[in-house]
Design brief:
Blueprint (H helix, E strand, L loop, with lengths): L1 E6 L2 E5 L15 H9 L12 H9 L2 E7 L2 E6 L19 E3 L5 H11 L3 H4 L4 H14 L12 E3 L10 H16 L3 H5 L4 H9 L23 H10 L28 H23 L5 H14 L13 H12 L3 H12 L3
Antiparallel strand pairs: 1-2, 2-3, 3-4, 4-5, 5-6
């Protein structure tokens, strides 16, 4: 999990690994509290509303999850298969879940009835802090944890069910983050954790006044994905940089004498390699020129035997080759034969 955007009134997560097995939500924590409130466990063992969605949610390619006061937004990239030949836009699931936030009076009352726990909360881990706040509020009729009936879902998929697998995946992802950052629940229900705990310590904190409204980041202008895709296709592509000029046509090089090689053959091979490179470069820079004709001439020369690559080397008798190897290496005939055998065995 990566927290890519964090401010007091919006949290944007980028999941990095698939959802773990159900054991994650069996231990006490924010995720377990969240799921128990949405779908209380029954003695009959039925899987509840998340039963069929768990298998999909465990491996769903969630790219982003954004939590704001009263809103959960999730982006899922289901297009994980090979790219299609057509460039037609394929809409991806984008579930959005709206949850009612607590009003100012409820937040004020929750702050007042929790203030006497300030010293105790300071010594507890975050998951126990959340449990103390939710249980204290529930005893006084203020429920921080929403029920499934309070979650109003919408999704761009074709499912007609009240809770599609994509929306269920978003709710399960929230449970995952509540296990690691339990106090995100306060933000989701309308109050930044920073403002809530500041109100516990300061009865005159601005968040406790009726005029206080949480700040929201400005949202970008809404543009349908299909419109954005069409606009992208109509935009002219940037021009390529200017093509460099061709160098001069290569000539037959003059090479130094190399022992053991025929000078004329080596020069012909070098010249032909330069001609081939020049023909390929010319075809890339100036399509439609005589590059194809040049390449065809080179291929014809190779087939006819005029090319140095197809020219047969003079036959050297075996005894002469062995004698030259002995002179070059300083080995006797027996030592050379042993070296050949060792080389054949990989020694």
């Amino acid at each position: 999990m990566t927290l890519t955007d964090h401010n007091p009134y919006r949290m944007r997560f980028t999941p990095s690994t698939p959802l773990p097995d159900d054991e994650l939500y069996e231990r006490p924590g924010g995720g377990r509290l969240w799921l128990d409130a949405l779908a209380p466990r029954t003695r009959s063992g039925t899987k509840g509303p998340f039963g069929r969605a768990r298998a999909y949610a465990r491996t769903a390619p969630v790219t982003h999850l954004v939590l704001e006061p009263g809103t959960i937004r999730c982006w899922i990239n289901d297009n994980t298969g090979p790219a299609s030949a057509s460039r037609a836009y394929v809409p991806q699931p984008h579930p959005t879940i709206h949850i009612p936030v607590l009003d100012h009076g409820q937040w004020h009352d929750l702050t007042v009835i929790t203030r006497h726990l300030t010293d105790r909360l300071a010594r507890l881990p975050a998951e126990e802090v959340l449990q103390e706040i939710t249980s204290t509020g529930a005893r006084n009729g203020i429920h921080l944890l929403p029920t499934l009936d309070q979650c109003h879902t919408s999704c761009s998929c074709s499912s007609r069910s009240a809770l599609c697998k994509h929306a269920a995946t978003a709710l399960l992802q929230v449970a995952r983050y509540l296990d690691t950052m339990p106090l995100v629940l306060l933000l989701l229900r309308g109050r930044s954790p920073v403002d809530f705990f500041a109100g516990l310590q300061d009865p005159d904190h601005p968040s406790l006044k009726n005029s206080h409204t949480p700040r929201h980041l400005p949202s970008p202008p809404a543009t349908p994905a299909q419109t954005a895709h069409d606009q992208w296709e109509r935009v002219a592509q940037p021009s390529l940089p200017p093509v460099p000029a061709l160098p001069e046509r290569p000539t037959t090089p003059v090479l130094a004498v190399v022992d053991g090689f025929d000078g004329r053959t080596l020069a012909d091979l070098t010249a032909e390699a330069a001609q081939r490179a020049y023909a390929l470069l010319s075809a890339l820079i100036h399509p439609g020129t005589d590059a194809a004709h040049t390449a065809g001439n080179l291929a014809e020369a190779e087939r006819s035997g005029a090319s140095p690559t197809s020219r047969q080397l003079p036959t050297i008798p075996l005894q002469q080759r062995l004698r030259e190897l002995q002179e070059a290496t300083g080995l006797t005939k027996a030592e050379l034969a042993q070296a050949v055998r060792d080389w054949g065995l990989g020694g």
